Give the backbone structure.
Amino acid sequence: MRRPLLVANWKMHKSVAEAEDFAAALLPLLPPAGAELAIAPPFTALAALGRALRGSPVLLAAQNANPAESGAFTGEVAPAMLAELGCRYVIAGHSERRGLYGESDDFVAAKVCALLAAGLRPIVCVGESLEVRRAGGGAAEVVCRQLQNSLAGVPAGLAAELAVAYEPIWAIGTGETATPQAAQQMHAALREKLRGLFGAAAEAIRIQYGGSVKPGNAAALLAQPDIDGALVGGASLNPESFAALAAESGGAS
Ligand code: PEP
């Protein structure tokens, strides 16, 4: 039985003060027992949000990291720096980073390996474009190949530390969501790919769904056997809405 994982991806939203206010408003609203919860704020709010969440059931996550340990990488942040701030999860290969900043599967794989080496848990994002979806039939093959390539070099012994997020690009921030049945089909294909790569460890890997998840549609998605949580952008920016998602995901613990 996999414990659902609900992660807020705030993208480039919220100042330090806004992140602190969010934590103060969220914590009293959280339902008891159930999903594992994490918030990925902008880098600038990590330290303050980490302090505000200390002692609560909500973990700290980051939105990105560079695969290198240190060096001349202006503007980048290394995995160990995130671990030092108390991050548990780090999003790797979000479609916005792949699309806007040219991150390749190889680069994402290097990042995933570096995160694991630093004791962090990567959330590896994959998903097809609208073009691929419209072409019909081949989306599962494309997304499974993307997953395999983005996990190159991951030691089987660390596979259980991974989470995967299936995020169809056409559903991110658009208000359009994959139906629970269509999402389940893709998640089952991804699980099969993970079994091929890692054997029995695949059963422990949470596969989240992402793409316009909001209160009202999360429960039906999470009721599917291979959907083990959600990665949420827009609907995670409001404490009431994130608390409602936590309740639909089975509470917090
Ligand atoms: C995301 O960016 O990971 C995401 C799923 O965004 P939204 O929930 O806004 O579609």
